Amino acid sequence: MIIQERIAFAVVAALTLTISATTATSDASLRDPTILQVTDDNIPNVYHRKFLKDALLLGTEERFKIFMKKYNKEYGSREEYVHRLGVFAKNIVRAVEHQAMDPTAVHGVTQFMDLTEDEFERMYTGVVGGGAHVEGVTTSFVEAGGLPGSFDWRKKGAVTDVKMQGACGSCWAFSTTGAIEGAHFIATGKLLNLSEQQLVDCDNKCDMVDKRACDDGCGGGLMTNAYRYLMEAGGLEEEGSYPYTGKRGECKFDKEKIAVKVANFTNIPIDETQIATHLVHHGPLAVGLNAIFMQTYIGGVSCPLICGKKWINHGVLLVGYGAKGFSILRFGYKPYWIIKNSWGKQWGEEGYYRLCRGHGMCGMNRMVSAVVTQVS
Ligand SMILES: *[C@@H]1O[C@H](CO)[C@@H](O)[C@H](O)[C@H]1NC(C)=O
Ligand SMILES: *[C@@H]1O[C@H](CO)[C@@H](O)[C@H](O)[C@H]1NC(C)=O
Q1: pTM (2 decimals)?
Q2: Residue range 184-208, pLDDT digits in tens
Q3: Is 21 helix (H, G, I), strand (E, B) or coil?
Q4: Residue 6: which H helix or E strand, with range?
Q5: Annotated catalytic, 314?
Q6: Which residues neighbour 37 within 8 Å (Cβ) at sequence distance 6 or greater?
Q7: Which of 20, 64, 144, 314 has the smallest number of CB atoms closer than 10 Å to its CB?
Q8: Per-residue model confidence as pLDDT tens digits over 262-290
Q9: Is residue 95 included in any domain, yes or no?
Q10: Range(s) of the domain holding residue 245
């Protein structure tokens, strides 16, 4: 046992050293002492140790079979099986790397381990344009005093159950409905499940500045485009009248069945205190971020040492924040955001992601919007 553990630790140390060696020249902040702690032989964290031990000691194929069973995976041919096993093996290495880069979260085997990074991005995210710019009017700064230390719209009943986008790049539609569901609840006291499928089937709106960034069903879209589509179309149906299929189909929108009308929307400034203030005052906010670490995320507060801020590929819903997150290594406690995702409850923390707050982490502060519903 002791020898096996040493092997595991040696691999962590080697991986971490590789990471710091390849990046140290490009970013001085990586010489941050925290990275040295990861290379420390004396890793105190059970999850981390157990995951690495499993990953290294259990045969990859054996692990792959457990994965297939757990997530009901089937492959059509022997070739496909072998190909997916290879992708899985690479993703195990990526999960170990993510763990070393993001020590306050737990990374491991998720339902996405048989997908390459490109496949994952294409099928399970879906923000177009990369967030190179943000359109529209930005709200004026609001007074930020008197915010609660922690806050959670789920506890106030403003958030529907975690949904599942499936293998369709429609995250933008889920982020949009989430923001409208919250705004409608705050305006009327009624929580409705609203229709993503209407947006997937009917919305082709393009960004006002980046004309190539258009809403395109399972091919991606933008939340701000979707608000503009809804303002023009007249409103949004409920999930019940226009259910989700996960495929783009013919537009079946029926004005008679409109449940909620959108009056307007605003983009929120990048300042995270402003984001918190808008969240508390206006309800859950639609957010774009870089989802790279989410492919292997199991739980905890994600706070990667590097996470590209400039490539936003995934739309999610900000529903709250906390002051002190559980931190598994000895990095101290981290304040975090609570983020609703659309990959079902099996992913992450019952479908939610916690991301550290105050660092513009993974670009989460660059594409934030609030929607205003029309109360008739
Ligand atoms: C939304 O739909 C889910 C799944 O069908 C259901 O469990 C939940 O109760 C619904 N929520 C509301 C507020 O209607
Ligand atoms: C939407 O909001 C912006 C700024 O918040 C305002 O200038 C604009 O007039 C509003 N549009 C409508 C239709 O209310």
Answers
A1: 0.83
A2: 999 999 999 999 999 999 999 998 8
A3: helix
A4: helix 2-23
A5: yes
A6: 103, 329, 330, 331
A7: 144
A8: 999 999 999 999 999 999 999 999 999 99
A9: no
A10: 117-374
